[in-house]
Amino acid sequence: MFTDQKPAFTIQQIQELRQITIWGVGLIGGSLGLALKENGFQGERIGLGRNIGRLEKARKLNAVDVITTDLSEGIHESDLVVLCAPVTLVPIFIKHILETIVPQQRRIVVTDVGSTKSVIVSTVEEQLKATNSDSVAFVGGHPMAGSHETGVDAANSDLFNNANCLLTPTKNTDKDALQLVENLWKFVGAVPHVCSPEVHDLLIGAASHLPHLMASILANTVADVDSQEGTAIDFTATGFRDSTRIAAGSPELWTGIFLQNRDVILALIDNIVDNLHEFKDKVQKNDEIHIEQILAAAQKIVMKQ
Q1: Do the beta carbons of residue 192 and residue 165 sit within 8 Å?
Q2: How far apart are CA 178 and CA 165, in angstroms?
Q3: What are 21-51's pLDDT values in tens digits?
Q4: Nearest to residue 211, comparing CAs of 245, 186, 187?
Q5: What pTM was computed for the model?
Q6: Where are the alpha helices (DSSP H) in the chain?
Q7: Numbered ranges of CATH 3.40.50.720 in the chain
Q8: Which fold has domain 200-303?
């Protein structure tokens, strides 16, 4: 389960970094760059990506100091690289880093912000083992902050304030690298927690992935209801918008998340189906008492949030 890390947080450790590279300067990467600056980071914030136009926008918004589309240039002097990319791309980015760096005296710590962890962490550890490289130390990470909006235009320096950030080390994870990544997230206001990649995927599958799936299913279901007077979508109000807002997220990104967390999602779908069948049964039987009990239990859970 979760374990709160207790080693002392030192602002100095982050301040001593010469460069931090953010690979992918969208909502999360841009917010990280802004939060670093807001909290007093004195080193260079390098924005790395493939779209120079987006990178120039990130620099204009002061999310990064220097921009480049060249990987070698982007990581050459960096002490820490944060991969702000879709989950399917993280292992590919690690592969490119391993192919680019030259064995050297210093080591690069690399972390990510992906919403799944088991596949990413196991794949990256296999890559590191296969290359027998000590030049890269990887720490799986996932800040629980975001928005249905995308792009650096939506970036916010306060995005990580008091947000939980899950770190998923294994027995192979370098402790110093873990400490550095933990301090990074504390530096920008997040609250780190440590768990295994498997526990992460189970809990976040239920807490984040399932709600997105249900919002998407709900939106599609309502859209299918119509009559001569109009469609159900024409008559939706705040309740529908509140329930489906997160379905506005990137379909490509979420497809990768669902497939990487496949086993957990399948089990959760079974749970949802069972719960719906139970509720259907109570409605068919006009079981007012148990219907109200189900709704009251849900109300109690939500009111605690």
Answers
A1: yes
A2: 13
A3: 999 999 999 999 999 999 999 999 999 999 9
A4: 245
A5: 0.91
A6: 11-15, 27-38, 52-60, 71-75, 90-100, 118-131, 175-187, 197-204, 210-223, 238-244, 251-260, 262-284, 288-303
A7: 11-195
A8: 6-phosphogluconate dehydrogenase C-terminal fold (1.10.3660)
Instruction: Name residue 231's beta-bridge partners.
Output: 226
One CATH from 3.40.1010.10, 3.90.226.10, 3.40.50.720, 3.30.450.40 for 11-195: 3.40.50.720
- DSSP-derived 3-state class of residue 155: coil
Q: How far apart are CA 192 and CA 139, in angstroms?
A: 13
**Other CB atoms within 10 A of residue 111 CB:** 24
Provide the pLDDT for residue 192: 96
Q: What is the pLDDT of residues 127-137, one digit of tens each?
A: 999 987 788 99
Integer Cα distance of 144 and 36 in angstroms: 17
DSSP single-letter state for residue 167: E
Helix, strand or coil, per DSSP, at residue 83: strand
**186 contacts: CB under 8 Å, gap ≥ 6:** 9, 192
For the segment 234-293, what is each residue's pLDDT rounded down to a tens digit?
Answer: 999 999 999 999 999 889 999 999 999 999 999 999 999 999 999 999 999 999 999 999
Which residue's structure tokens are 């980071």? 41
* Cβ atoms 87, 54 nearer than 8 A: no
Give the residue range(s) of CATH 1.10.3660.10 domains in the chain: 200-303
Q: CA-CA distance, 107 to 97, in Å (whole number)?
A: 12
For 17, counting Cβ atoms within 10 Å of its Cβ (0-12 exposed, 13-18 middle, 19+ buried), the class is buried
- Which secondary structure element, helix H or strand E, spans residue 195, and what is its range? none
